[in-house]
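Here is one chain, start to finish.
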Amino acid sequence: MGHGHHHTHGHGHTHDHDHGHESASALPAAFDASVPDEALTPEQQSRRTMLRRTGLLGAGLAAGSVLAGTAGSAPAAAAAPAAPLGSSPKKGFLWLAGDHHIHTQYSNDGKYRVVDQVRQGAKHGMDWLVITDHGNVTHSKIGVEKVNPDIRDARDAYEDTLVFQGLEWNIPGAEHGTVFVHPGKNEVSVLKQFETDYDGSVKGASDSTPANEALAIAGLNFLAQQVQRRKVQDALMLANHPARRGVDSPHEIRGWRDATGRDHQVAVGFEGAPGHQAGGIAKPLGMGRARGIYDNNPSANSFAGYPPESYRTWGGFDWMTSTVGGLWDSLLAEGKPWWITANSDSHNVYTDTAKRGGPDSDYLANGKHTDPVYRGTIDLTEGDYWPGQYSRTHVGSAGFSYAAVMDGIRAGRIWVDHGQLISGLDVRVSGGYRWATLGGALHVRKGTRVTMTVDIALAGGPNWAGFLPKLARVDVIQGEVTGEAADKDTFTAPTAKVVKSYEVNKSTGTVRLTYDLGRVDRPLYVRLRGTDGNRSAVGAMGAAVDPAGPAIDVVGDADPWADLWFYANPVWVLPS
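Its structure:
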């Protein structure tokens, strides 16, 4: 993303400005057709070229093209009906790429300055970023305040990149999660109080006990209260690497999702794919561990029902997401919103030439490590990528603002990809003169014929590994909405399966796929995934459910660039 200081975008960079009253912002310069090419910085020109190449800018965007997306979907399964078909909105969604899981020198195991991560994220096409340093006693006392001026400075320096302050929550009784708030005068005080009172590490509440699980729910309720009391404009939580250690039980995930009610849902999803994707590159050229560092085994705090294979990634994706008919599908079958993302979890970057600065780096005393310095060698022992270098979370946003990105995440207008497998995605499910898109619900009369139309912009140029990725196949996955699970620890959805696969026989331009759902007489949902076709295997539920899903990643030998997938969030169809 470009960063011309001459072009102000109005998302609030003055340090005494309260983002809580943020208005709709101007477009970033690269998106704004009124800014001539010659007025752009080199970075902005590069960004605009990429947007044009993928069909996401220019005449297509101005016309509200299918790939630009259009506003008109219900935000969640139980929400209002979708917009009438053909109701031409004035503008389409901006599909803004971002990363909600990033570490800096303010993490005990981090290294980079905030501005380093933001600069790299901008270079790699990120429109929004969340700084999420680890929750711990030192961070709660020192770091959460100390990092804020660095974040504010990065907002000023990189005007075309939205930079949120958040933290990586040690969820009491469970794993980690991203917590972040809308920028404003209380962003530090709210995060500081939350971390002090509800972080599992700070409170010594990491074990899987009912009391600790209750503390996690109390923390989410605290965040909702801060929004209701207008301390902050918005707050969100997304669970990170949920199957890595087996400690996020199904009933805990359901509890987080339902904690704050529909008035202001705070917990809205989990990482469909974890960070640390370079971890599986074989020695001597890499760590020789697992993609995502998913090389754990069950512990005393793990949920006993999870099978051994749940502790590994599948095509780089978490088992909860990658298993057709698995845990994610069991949540979607309840008809309630729960979304997936994909992030870098960037701590220490593979092939980087920097190291943590100096032997005098005293995190406990200072709340941060000293600035990185030149290493003198290339580091092949780390497993991370820069934000946007490999994993991307694309959010359909009604504008370029903090509030619009948070609204898009809560609404589930999200698709994710690895290795820049595709450039753009638009999904439209239509019937009865109405339509809905990702995260939405199409309300129709029983027996209405329903069709899903998918437009895909294929890769428009080489990815960050230097080759042009090629989409080989797209799968449509469908499941019935069966209502609330009687057992909150359910993690299967017996009706979910791959119902259609499309071979993609071109490598550039756009592809349109159409899937006929027939005359729908019962509630259901559909979702999409796609692959480069390099590695596949019969899914965990058998060939009748998933004949060619992602294969389990080999620990010690899993090159992430040789196995690329994209996934999209669901659309529900609710006949009545």
